Amino acid sequence: MSIGIIGAGAIGSAIAEILSRAGIDVTVSNSRGPDTLADLAKRLGPHVHAGTREQAAEQDIVFVAVNWSKLPRAMAGLPDWNGRIVIDTNNSIEAPLFQPFELHGKTSSEVFAGMVPGARVVKAFSHLSPDLLTADPAARGGRRVLFLSGDDREARQTVRALIDRLGFFSLDLGPLAVGSRLLQFPGGTLPAHHLVKVD
Predict the structure, then answer these.
(1) What's the domain count of the chain?
(2) What is the span of the domain harbouring residue 7?
(3) What are the residue boundaries of the Pyrroline-5-carboxylate reductase catalytic N-terminal domain, all occurrences included (predicted)?
């Protein structure tokens, strides 16, 4: 299993850090090119490799962590996804104004899925802040909860296994039409909550 990340801001870097900590190789990319990620890769260790957007996108599992307004450009021109898993970590709001984008009744994940035709989209890693993602997932006598949602059952199972490997407790919310609406920020009921599954 190979993993890529498109977007190296706070969330993308946090995901790279926890993957690296688990000994998982990951290719990280941004819009400015691999040279600008050399310091990040060095800081996070030998499992993190700087690459192009295209190199990150060709991996088996691809995290996308890009400001909402920049998503169309970030996804444009990439090769066919051919059924690979794309993890949507995005929220349809961004600094500095934090005004929600107009989605015309759709969830942000449904809009995002239209940008990655042929991909199996799973919504995950979107409701916790970067500092909680990178903190020890063992907390208060249990494991920190990470929710996920997607229309492809096998893709959800793969992402669940990855979440569990990272030390979190995975909680499957089912199809995007249901789960992504609960996870969506703003508007969903789950992003504001930091939950722990007591073992």
Answers:
(1) 1
(2) 3-198
(3) 3-91
- pLDDT, tens digit (0-9, with 9 covering 90-100), for 97-120: 777 888 888 889 999 999 999 999
Q: Are 100 and 93 in contact (CB under 8 A)?
A: yes
Count of beta carbons in the 10 Å neighbourhood of residue 61: 22
Query: Nearest 5°: phi and psi at 30?
Result: -145, -175
Cis peptide before 130 (omega within 30 of 0): no
Asked if 82 and 54 touch (Cβ cutoff 8 Å), the reply is no
The percentage of the chain sitting over the pLDDT mark of 90, rounded to a whole number, equals 75
Cα-to-chain-centroid distance, residue 155: 14
| Amino acid of residue 57 | A
Q: Find the DSSP H helices in the chain.
A: 10-21, 38-44, 53-57, 71-75, 108-113, 130-134, 153-165, 176-183
In the beta sheet, which residues pair with residue 88?
64, 123
